[in-house]
Each structure stands twice: as structure tokens, then as C-alpha cells.
Prior knowledge:
By secondary structure, the protein is of the alpha/beta class. The protein has 7 helices and 7 strands, in the order βββαβααβαβααβα. Strands 4-5-3-6-7 form a 5-stranded parallel sheet. The protein has a two-stranded antiparallel sheet with strand order 1-2. α1 (26-37) crosses α7. It starts with a strand and ends in a 6-residue tail after the last helix.
Amino acid sequence: MQSTFASVTIEIYMIVIVMGVSGSGKSTVGAELSKQLRWPFYDADDYHSRTNKQKMRMGVPLQDTDRLPWLAKLSGIILKHIELNKSMVLACSALKGSHRVLLDVHRKCHFVYLKGTFEVIQERIRKRHKHFFNPELTKSQFDALEEPQNCLVIDIGCTVKEIVATICKQLNLAHC
């Protein structure tokens, strides 16, 4: 997004963090939002260690000690974009308030919570193929989830197109 004032162009940037339990559609929505905005997209799953991915394949829930190095990497990516005054979209579970604190490193960070019921999420995960997340972990995701306050909450029953349009409207992203 750009603003022009007296022939001076000012780049207005934003960090959008699409969050929710596994299977909520974070990656799909984040990628589509990124595409429409022409902003870089980062999928937090790509930054998990091999050990974390192996644990999840085996159905072992991650602990905060497993997540902290991963969250630190993601925070570093966000900080780099802030240093450069560049926008980005991140898809990340950010299940706990403490996780979101580590990612909410600047006033330019905006969280979008994709909310769905256990049953809907569980069905989506069962239909997914070639993903390291074991469907047996769905309950542990909901157990760990601390629903965020003061962020944009969107029901996953909407289409991806509707969700992206809502994000653009609510975050005042004019070129979406």
C-alpha cells in the first residue's frame, strides 16, 4: 500500500499473521492473500526442524521447548521485514498467547484468527495428504489453543475468496 503526499511516496507496510489450529486453512488463505497483495508469503511449517516434523508425523504433540527455536526464526523473519519497511504474510499456528507475544514484535503486526470447530478441522485434516501433521494431534491443537483477543476472527466456513476479501476489508488493504 502506498500513500502520496506532495509528490513524496511513502510505503505503508504491514505484517499479517494468519493463525489457527492445523487444518484451519492458514497456508491456503495466507498464500492467496499474499498472491493478491503481491507480498512475500511465509509458511511457518517450512521452518520447523526435522525433529519437530518427525514428532508430529508420529503423533507426538510439540511442547513449548520444541516451539521456541521455531518461533524465534519466525520472529527474525518478521523483524527483517520491519527493518526493511516491507510487508509480508505469515501462516503460523501461534496457538498460545505466549507464542503470539514472540511474533507480535511491532505495531505493524496484525493477527487474523481462522476459527473452526473441532469436527470441521478434524475432517479437513483427515482429507489432507502428503502433510507431516498426524490427524491424531487435532485434539492436542485445540487443547493448546488460547483463543486470541483483539484480533480479526474469521469463521473457516467461508470460502477462501470470502476470507481473503474480509481480511482486505477489515485491515483496510485497498489494493486487494
